[in-house]
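Hypothesis: this fold can be encoded by more than one sequence.
Test: take the structure tokens below, design a sequence, compare later.
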């Protein structure tokens, strides 16, 4: 089921969690940044401010996906992922900075965020494939979604990683002949 979100983006999902593509002008953007900082950056001694200083203008190149839970106190971003549509790898986008609130991990939120990014990449953007640099401990997560490891293990921010890749599924030809109206 696809519904349009309150800020003009799309929303998919149940009443409990919706999945949206947002812009940096969306009020949910700041909440997504706080989640990224808490889950991904603080453990390695980084902040969003330091990240912006190291890579000026980089944040604007991403497409931002969020998982949102409606609570009595308002909307809460419980998951996020970034899609970098243009990379130095022709025809491939990059999935980056995927984070799910520690209290909500194991509920399929990360899986759904990856599927949302894949749908955008392979649908509207027409990309050939996606890749990401997965922490070695998370490669099984991507493998369950059809991603495959590529190349050798490497260390980033002191953590072992592996490049994971998925290619656009082939379009199956219809067995039914197309009517010639």
């Amino acid at each position: 089921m696809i519904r349009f979100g309150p800020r003009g983006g799309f929303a998919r999902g149940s009443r409990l969690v919706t999945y949206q593509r947002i812009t940096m002008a969306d009020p949910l953007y700041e909440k997504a940044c706080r989640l990224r900082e808490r889950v991904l950056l603080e453990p390695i001694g980084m902040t969003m401010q330091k990240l912006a200083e190291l890579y000026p203008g980089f944040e604007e190149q991403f497409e931002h996906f969020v998982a949102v839970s409606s609570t009595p106190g308002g909307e809460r971003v419980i998951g996020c992922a970034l899609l970098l549509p243009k990379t130095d790898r022709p025809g491939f986008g990059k999935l980056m900075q995927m984070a799910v609130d520690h209290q909500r991990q194991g509920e399929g939120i990360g899986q759904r965020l990856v599927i949302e990014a894949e749908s955008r990449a392979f649908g509207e953007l027409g990309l050939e494939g996606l890749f990401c640099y997965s922490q070695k401990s998370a490669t099984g997560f991507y493998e369950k979604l059809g991603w495959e490891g590529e190349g050798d293990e490497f260390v980033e921010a002191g953590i072992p990683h592996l490049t994971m890749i998925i290619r656009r599924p082939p379009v199956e030809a219809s067995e039914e002949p197309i009517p010639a109206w």
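The first strand starts at residue 2 and ends at 4. The chain has a mean pLDDT of 88.
Hypothesis status: open.
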